[in-house]
């Protein structure tokens, strides 16, 4: 890996292209290095994973809304159009990226990478896939081309997440997604470095926003934010291909992102990127979710399931004085009591809020010994009196060692769990800890192809017919060998009547 020093430059310093981070990212995207087998295998896994969570969310309000917006637009004339999960016809690629991006993110149930910044790098797949489907016949794009584009998207987003913190300045993490998706599309299409450079700059410029979408009363925009970044990436590449330019230097400029949105004129970062000819393997550092909840909750759910079996006494709030989760800075301040969000203890809070409340999640997983993507968030489940009583006894505190491990770039020690101290009313204590989720590559039951396939089967069985489940899994698992005429099969049709109860909203389109 090459380490790049990134800082703000005054306008009179005239920072050359070669010194700009966006140019270096474009170099990663335009490096013709082939992918290795392990990366190709994992891309297939994540395509299946995305489709699984999209199927589970197909009738939810934000997904119905985004799909209806997308289908209000015809296929653009430059290609054959792109598929939309659950829809019978195609639409324009930027709108397919939008609809599918919302479907993938709605349940917060796909892959993750956490370092200096947070990310869900699977969000790169909808925009790259949409462009691949639209232009497959015109450009002769294959499954191998799609895999290379997706691998670039993962590489750029994960490398940025390792080096540049956005949340420290309350900027939403999708500011890394716009550039990564633009880079992935550039790789897919074999674009030149200057074009990808301009597209990355435009994608970054249009996707910086505050983190209020993930604070307090969390709204449905949480699912739309990454879809918007993907849509902007598609449009940014289109503009760049037409010769349109972007703000330069976008990261390092005197009035650029670092100077005014991040660490300021004195801010400095180190971003490590692959050397020319070095394989793009960052996807292998990411991890998916077994449970539908914010990633920092994954290990805690697994620990709660274990405690449910071992200590049935603690399921009753009358026997518990307090439950304290000693954990990382992020878990404490973003999804824990350190956020000081009263909504995290509100039984009437939205699903989006509850899946960012570790006190709620730990309580329900502890009492139920399980976690379900629908039932665990049901209003009647959240309002159960014994749950509310126990929930309000759960707090978090930051532990410096868990914060250090959270930010470690040594994948063998990187951790997202912590230590729980349960104090009983008789003064006794129960102390347990967990470092990583069971499904993590270093966890008790790491996810492999079998688990990704099972996740798809489980989440899709209520809305897809059995034959359609098998058809999709066949196409997805043949991704490296797919020809241009087969990329359109990377979607799914729902069973007759599955969308009948969905209330399609009306808008402008």
TrEMBL record:
Belongs to the PrpD family. Keywords: Lyase. InterPro entries: MmgE/PrpD_sf, MmgE/PrpD_sf_1, MmgE/PrpD_sf_2, MmgE_PrpD, MmgE_PrpD_C, MmgE_PrpD_N. It comes from Agromyces archimandritae. This is 2-methylcitrate dehydratase. Residues 291-478 form the MmgE/PrpD C-terminal domain. It comes from the Bacteria. Its EC number is 4.2.1.79. It catalyses: (2S,3S)-2-methylcitrate = 2-methyl-cis-aconitate + H2O. GO terms for molecular function: 2-methylcitrate dehydratase activity. Monomer. The keyword Lyase applies. Residues 20-266 form the MmgE/PrpD N-terminal domain. It holds the Pfam family MmgE_PrpD_N.
